[in-house]
Design a protein that fits this description.
The protein has two domains: 3-76, no CATH class; 79-151, no CATH class. Helices cover 48% and strands 14% of the residues. It contains four helices and five strands. The longest helix is centred in the middle third of the chain and has 33 residues, at 79-111. It starts with a strand and ends in a 10-residue tail after the last helix.
């Protein structure tokens, strides 16, 4: 099945419905199956309904910011919203790294008493983690290509040994 249905609900949220090929009727094409599912399953108050090729769906990385245009049968991703998604993902990854470093630091303290230099190195590392979003934000804000924005990766500080 290479077709899907894009549509907006009454509040303007974009949805994508992927018809299951398992419910295809004999000699039914992908387009006919999608039309049948559209007529049967898409809510009556849905707007901007279109059947498109799955290959025309943009990256799922920006899924929460997809904006369907049923008339043109495409999904747009506003670059400003995409930048916000990227920064949110960077902050989430940073949160994981900070949590991991907290656990590692507590384990080390339970085993032995760190030297002053080890404490300074660890504090510097953690400050580097906190600085990452601010350091990369100008680069994220300057990016205008969605694929390049998705591929953009911050330089993470190296955890002390």
């Amino acid at each position: 099945m290479n077709k899907c249905i894009i549509w907006k609900n009454a509040t303007g949220d974009t949805y994508v419905t992927h018809p299951s090929p398992q419910i295809r009727l004999a000699s039914e094409t992908d387009q006919q199956l999608a039309e049948r599912i559209r007529d049967r399953d898409i809510p009556g108050d849905a707007t901007e309904i279109a059947i498109i090729d799955k290959s025309d769906l943009p990256s799922r990385f920006y899924r929460d910011e997809w904006d369907a245009d049923g008339v043109g049968a495409k999904i747009d991703i506003p670059i400003g919203k995409a930048r916000n998604v990227k920064m949110k993902a960077i902050r989430a990854e940073r949160r994981i790294k900070l949590d991991d470093s907290d656990r590692e630091h507590m384990k080390r303290q339970a085993i032995y008493d760190p030297t002053d230099q080890e404490r300074i190195d660890y504090d510097t590392f953690r400050q580097g983690l906190r600085d990452v979003p601010g350091d990369i934000k100008p680069t994220v804000d300057a990016e205008t290509d969605l694929d390049a924005l998705e591929a953009l990766q911050p330089t993470w500080p190296t955890e002390p040994a």
